[in-house]
Amino acid sequence: MNDAAQPAVARTSRELVLTRILDAPHERVFQAWTTRLSEWWGPHGMTTPFCEMDLRPGGVFRTIMRAPDGTEYPTSGVFLEVTANERIVFTDAFAPGWEPVPDPFFTAITTFEALPGGRTRYTARALHWTVENREKHEQMGFYQGWGESLDRLEVLLAKS
């Protein structure tokens, strides 16, 4: 593994941030995010047997992560922004068709910053509607779980 995922400075009290330097060009990291998510998404031991992405504003983003005991963790939302090789933004605040959901939790902003030497600064920001939701997400294991996903992404990038 390269640099461990590191918590980064949050801009607000409703934000969680994780960053890592990946030893791959930002185009490859973006491609792995957009076409191979099911191979690395989720903490160690989890699988992602279902992944649906329509990579455009308003396009659907759905996954199901499955724990070793069979427990499933579905996510559903829409993309707000997809800028090739640079940035992906999705939220659970809307269902497809811009249908508002009754209890939104967060919006994720992932950036892929090109660095010298063909490396990428990968930053994942989770912006929550409330401080309570941010605290809940942190207690659910945001740093460990999202960090382990990045471990799995690093392994995938090293093999490809």
Please give a quick description of this structure.
This protein is of the alpha+beta class. The protein has helices at residues 26-35, 131-139, 142-159, and strands at 6-7, 15-22, 47-53, 60-66, 72-83, 87-91, 94-95, 99-100, 106-115, 119-128. The chain has a single domain (18-159), classed as Alpha-D-Glucose-1,6-Bisphosphate, Chain A, domain 4, CATH 3.30.530.20.
Would you give an account of this structure?
It contains three helices and ten strands; from the N terminus they run E-E-H-E-E-E-E-E-E-E-E-H-H. The mean pLDDT is 94. The strands form two sheets. Strands 1-2-10-9-6-5-4-3 form an eight-stranded antiparallel sheet. With 160 residues, it is of the alpha+beta class. The chain has one domain: START domain (Alpha-D-Glucose-1,6-Bisphosphate, Chain A, domain 4, 2-Layer Sandwich), CATH 3.30.530.20. Helices cover 23% and strands 41% of the residues.
List the topology elements.
Layout: E1 6-7, E2 15-22, H1 26-35, E3 47-53, E4 60-66, E5 72-83, E6 87-91, E7 94-95, E8 99-100, E9 106-115, E10 119-128, H2 131-139, H3 142-159
Antiparallel strand pairs: 1-2, 2-10, 3-4, 4-5, 5-6, 6-9, 7-8, 9-10
